[in-house]
Amino acid sequence: MAMKVKLAKSFFDITREEYLAPGHTACPACGALLTARLVLKAAGPDVIVVNPTGCLEVTTTIYPYTAWGVPYIHVAFENAGAVASGIEAAIKSLNKNGSLKRNTKVLVIAGDGGTYDIGLQALSGMLERGHGVLYVLYDNEAYMNTGIQRSGGTPKFARTTTMPAGTVIRGKIEKKKDIMSIVMAHHIPYAATANVAFPIDLVNKVRKALSYLNEGPAFIHVLAPCPPGWGFSDEKMIEIARLATETGYFPLYEWDRDRLIINPPSDMYMDKRLRKSLREFVKAQSRWSHVTDEEIKGLEKDIDDFLNYLWRLSMGSGVPTPYA
């Protein structure tokens, strides 16, 4: 069973200790760095971080320096889930034979390229085998480290260097991959979405996820905006991130033992009348500067459909079938 978790109610309930040091080379308003900083504050020092290639790795491990204040291993794009599985199994074995007497937790912190695409097979294997690992996806919605190429996490119509916007091709032509539904299909104990604009919610979800690791893996999908990749000024990062949830573009919810729970404030935004204008969110970013009003209506329809899908899942979760 999951351990009892003390949830934070304010910033005073979050440690002032820093496990990710200043002096890294990330952009001033990097969503990925803020994600890692908050995750480590929630997890504490007794962790091992597995980090595949990506923005977070190249900005925090410039040889011969490191910004990490906890044990850290850099791995290839495609194998974070496999490496984390091996570390978790080794810790379990060492505890079993008595040579280790501490329950060090294993965290993966990976970007969308290493999760949606290149690392998906290893992630799926880790989830299916039931390793007690917390996998945190920081989603900046493209391969930002190598020059803003599209990934499976890039949203529809967004302009990238590999999917430019013109009169024929309107940026990325496919919808963003629904990674949470893929993860939920593995029936792991806990999965959740979070947003750097809602740090208390993010910290609490990390704490809850860690409490489930004795039952199996956990997964947290964090929206981590990238100012240069999305096309907005640094000081607007939190504002843009908050709009993502307030418009329904990135809802906050949990998958808790096969029950879907829509979290505040997203529960309120199930009512379309209460959402902020998607146009306000889209037009604040240059990656969508070419998008027409008609195309924005199409994006709104996609959001409506997805939120209705989540609502149906939440209403049906935990309700036994009459034919059981």
TrEMBL record:
Cross-referenced Gene3D superfamilies: 3.40.50.970
Alphabetical list of SUPFAM superfamilies matching this protein: Thiamin diphosphate-binding fold (THDP-binding)
Keyword Oxidoreductase: yes
Domain Thiamine pyrophosphate enzyme TPP-binding: 53-222
Complex formation: Heterodimer composed of an alpha and a beta subunit.
Enzyme class: oxidoreductase
Catalytic activity: a 2-oxocarboxylate + 2 oxidized [2Fe-2S]-[ferredoxin] + CoA = an acyl-CoA + 2 reduced [2Fe-2S]-[ferredoxin] + CO2 + H(+)
Keywords: Oxidoreductase
One GO molecular-function entry: 2-oxobutyrate synthase activity
Database matches in Pfam families: TPP_enzyme_C
Keyword Oxidoreductase: yes
Name of the protein this chain belongs to: 2-oxoacid oxidoreductase (ferredoxin)
Record-listed E.C. numbers: 1.2.7.11
PANTHER family: PYRUVATE SYNTHASE SUBUNIT PORB
